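Two entries, shown back to back:
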Amino acid sequence: MRNTAPKNAAEIEALETREWLESLDYVLQAGGPARVGRLLRELGDYARQKGVSQPFTANTPYINTIPAADQPPFPGSREIERRIKSLVRWNALAMVVKANKLEDGIGGHISTYASAATLYEVGFNHFFKGKGDNHDGDIIYFQGHAAPGIYARAFLEGRLPAERLENFRRELKPGGGLSSYPHPWLMPDFWEFPTVSMGLGPIKSIYQARFMRYLEDRGLKKRSNCKVWAFVGDGETDEPESLGAITLASREKLDNLIFVINCNLQRLDGPVRGNGQIIQELEAIFRGAGWNVIKVLWGAEWDALLEKDHDGLLMKRMGEVVDGEYQKYAVESGEYVRKHFWGADARLLDMVKHLSDEQLKKLTLGGHDPIKVYSAYKAAVEHTGQPTVILARTIKGYGIGEAGEGKNITHQQKKLNEDELKAFRTRFGIPIGDEDVAKAPFYRPPDNSPEVSYMLERRKQLGGFVPSRKVQLEPLKTATLPELFSEFHQGSEGRKASTTMAFVRMLAKLLRDKEVGELIVPIVPDEARTFGMEALFRQVGIYSHVGQLYEPVDMDTLLYYKEATEGQILEEGITEAGSISSFIAAGTAYATHGINAIPFFIYYSMFGMQRVGDLVWAAADTRTRGFLLGGTAGRTTLSGEGLQHQDGHSHLLSLAVPNLISYDPAYAYEIAVIIEDGIRRMYVDGESIFYYITVMNEQYEMPPMPKDAREGILRGMYRLRASAKKGAKAKAQLLGSGAILNEVVKAQQILEEQYNVAADVWSVTSYQELYRDGHAVERWNRMHPGEKPRVPFVTQCLGSAEGVFVAASDYVKVLPDGIDRWLPRRLAALGTDGFGRSEGRGSLRDFFEVDAKHIVLTTLVELARAGSVDASVPQKAIAALGINAEKPNPAIS
């Protein structure tokens, strides 16, 4: 009798494994997946109790998340959709090729859309909801480098004429062109969101999805099943902004958010993770953060092979190959793939012995299979309780063949020769003859063709075209605002207050206003108490989708920390990048949601323009409206905090943003005038601008508003105090802004009382506005040499002023230097160039030489240079004022 007992430990282990698997199959059949999950958890707990230590993993096997048996039926015509996709591919490629033939080096990207075509087309034909007059639509952040494909589809839809495509990346041509990437500033009726600065699309989409919930929870927007889609490159996830906020999405259970990560395994220079697996890395990150993860790795041809993989050999092999090798398979022959992938085990070779080398080469990846992509999208749209990320495996440059498919050079590929164009044409069945193909002509079937008819019908069923940016809302009603702000025109009547305190009171009044109150969106990155905003906690509450599930530790105080589902404050925590993403979502709600939301984002000014300048630029491109408030501003006004906190250059950085209006006000009435006028310009007149206003924490008496100061406040400067000194020979014009304006006022008094100098004091609320106005006037005069020259506003103010000009601010000297050319005489500028110090205000202002005594000295030196005082006067003043002439230069010390 033959002995059938296992002969060695390996056989015994295999037998045990098989018995366990058979038992698991029984439980699965009898109790279903939920019972299997509970059983596995209980087994894991029991094993840990017995001292079995299992290494943690957040990964699932390197296969599709959705088994073939669970795929829903595909609802459309696969053949027509394939032809549409082929036409889009051709026109996208032709657009870039033609552009670079017409102008060498104009650039453009072929390979990104080539890899993502199926990901987009399945969305366009079955999922992306368009906006209409009576219904919302999906919010879609398109991957910037895929722009040619989005343009090509719009061309087929009849939305963009061929002439615009001819002028891709040549926007200044007659008739207009197409911007390189998604830019709402340049194409305000087409693009909604700029995304091509890597990493900004993902973080903005997260806060956009949360802001949708905020609007719904506060009753400003009807609840809907619309989604926020973010298309992201796998290489893009190395940017901190891409993944830095993903826990917010899971914490807030944002099941209205879907990430689609195009995992073509390549970035600009080479593989994303040549020695690893970016898909498994991302799966672990997102699963660990609480997201629903769907992997779409293998096309339908792999289903039968995986079905035969009873021992898990194929699945194991898939999981052990690194991305650099997968990239190699994409460019090598079927023979190479058979030898190096399947040849790792004889049993794997046996599994594919019935397939030719050509068939092995043609095994598709999941991101190129519309059935697999449709299944993933449907599952994502229907999933509740979590955001979803789809990790779709693709080949970069798919379809362009020898010109760069799967190669490291493919991202930079801009041109194809005639043979490469013919090969692409033939592969995708484009009806263009050999005699024309070298010209890379655009091709669009007739309007009544099956392809165009199908496209238009699908978009009609889904609610309209995307992308599309529409602004359809009534101007804001602001009749109550003049009275609301009038309080601040009266001054503080002897009481001391900071400009931050004044702003917070304005904000509190705006929140109570019957016309605009519900539209105000206060945003703060965990500094509300620093800015004196804690009273607003009780007044309007802090937004939380789940309300407040605990009793706050300060519940017995008047100003306790109150969270509420209908709360109005967005308390973002310590994240300026997240906060400004909320600011962008709120500030573009007029276009995205048809709601005139008015965001006020207040933050440490040092951590604004400097830290999130890229997002500020994106806000400008997106035509964001609202107010950025740089709190604790001024390099010498924020005492004690030191180098990293003291801001003396944010106004220099803001100057570079064309539609950002910046002010450094000193008094409450200046802020009131600026905010009231800003609301009018943005929400009544509909200007695509936003504001940056610095506010300080130094307390001093707020004077009443001088008569006729309004125009000057808004245009950049006005005379605050004329000299009372009559008949003095020496005269001066002193310019001050922000908290340093008070030092200028003190200097005026010293000059008049001790040095017989008649000095006028001017409040400069915005050097940026004066600078822009001056250059705009110069340009107009240059373009109209035969007409009466216009006069810059700063020249209107100071052109006939007597004496010397001295300016002092809490910011770098280049700001006042920027208006020097429009003054009748040179300007001496004092500012805070250099690193801050941990000191009090008096010491800081002495160190940076912007206090009253240095303003006096500078004025006297300028007067001596002009011959208005004797040269000995400033020499004696140095000693009299207690100035150390030999102290280190603050700009470099």
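entry 2 starts here
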Amino acid sequence: MIRRLWPPVISALAAALVFSASSAAQNPPPLPPIENGTQYLVFVRSQPIGREEVLIVRVADGWVVRGTSRLGPPIDITTRVAEVDYDLQWKPKSLLVDGIVRGQDVTLKTTFDGARAHNVLSVQGAPQLKSDAVSADPVVLPNMFLGSYAALARRLQGKTTGAELRGYIAPQAEATIRVTGAAPERIETPKGVIVATRYSLTFNSPPPAGDLPVNLWTDAEGALLRMNIPSQMVEMAREDIASAASRTAAFSLPGDEAVTIPSVGFNIAATITRPKSPAPAPAVILIAGSGPTDRDETVAGIPVFGHIARDLVAAGFAVVRYDKRGVGQSGGRVESVTIADYAEDARMVLLWTEKQKGIDKNRIAVVGHSEGALVAMLLAGRERARVSALALIAGPSTSGNDIVLEQQKLVLSKMPIDDAQRAEKISLQEKINQAVIKGTGWGEIPEASRRLADTPWFYSFLTFNPEKSMAETRQPIVIVQGELDTQVQPYHADKLAELARARKGDKVAVEVVKIPGVNHILVPAKTGDVTEYATLGPDATVSSQVTGAITGFLSKVMKE
């Protein structure tokens, strides 16, 4: 997914990458400990880039939020010390942040008098003064310290949809923080289940910044568990929550059964849900899109696959959905993973499914969403006899190279920059893509960009050929596409249908269903833009037209 940055939150992230890649690195080393501090891992585009350690202390006259951080590229910040002092009513008194931002010493000192924030920002010893009007009790969220959101977590306790707080994005401006949703969730970890609350927030800031959706999870005592900025794939999670053995369960169906599926060298964690029928049931395997996607394919709090599974089960299908390798409770590593590897994982799920009691092994379909559509085509081509039908949802019809450039141009068209700047960014994107594909030309690419782009997954995505993969399939296919999809534009559905109808062999059913007013994550929307996802609200659901198209087609082509 192509994401954009909201500068008032973390201005040091302004060099956010211009390419879409899925990769992961070794966990960063622990920070020198703060006594009784809580460690968090920080991720950008699913890659761990560093740690923050945070401590909230109750003192005689108020509260102190204290911490340190070490974040690598593309953020590149080391915070030696960060401290925010509040009184007992959570009115801020002072802020101190001292650290290194991209090689430069930076110190921010701020005092509050109830009406204004008085800042002294020193870069390489040169002070700059700035004073901003603020409310009496804003949550202080300095650009250099994500751990400051721990105070926001405390302040959100008891808040419901519609509530508002104020936040001072030091040293820039104050913003309104609006609660757009509050929902209970369960986070399963090796040590037990954490009962959590997920708050959907919107930071309202004056133009040109605009609105920023943020999600924040707290435990029953108001401690910060996790925070993410969906539009940027920036995430911070408590160390135990970030573990591959943990899983956030916000959605479940009656009859859900947690299972473990053996793969090559690791296990895949999955859920199978069976219909209420004594006869062997047809089965559907759901294959998720790019990034660290769990079995419910949760995006902006919306369990996309959970909703699809619900309607498939109601239509009489058994459904298997699973955590991708290295995600949730599934094992395996993702540093060297490729799309072909994901297809092999899906094949292991297929082989397991056909052996299960109550499953009609002659009627197993595969449903792939976004990148999952590419994986589904590979699997269907390799296992023609085992896969009975195929549903491709929002699947690309061209190479990943073309998709990345297409997405990039769309994002840049909406940014307040001139044509020359757009051309420069597109040129850089083209150079990055070609360097990945050819293995040469890295001398012109920033080192931070190379570290994230030069991965087996990104190479496999850029070079993936849907035409070739489609030609290997023989199954009946339904292609489902939201007409508001801005990540994989609607014309791709027609192109995929052309490729499907051009296949050799017996002619089988090929259908295209386009759903008006539906975005890439299959829910009704207004614009379809990625930045809109987190504003759709906790009650957003996958369109019944989407699930109806899938269940109707599969019921027709997989009759007994």
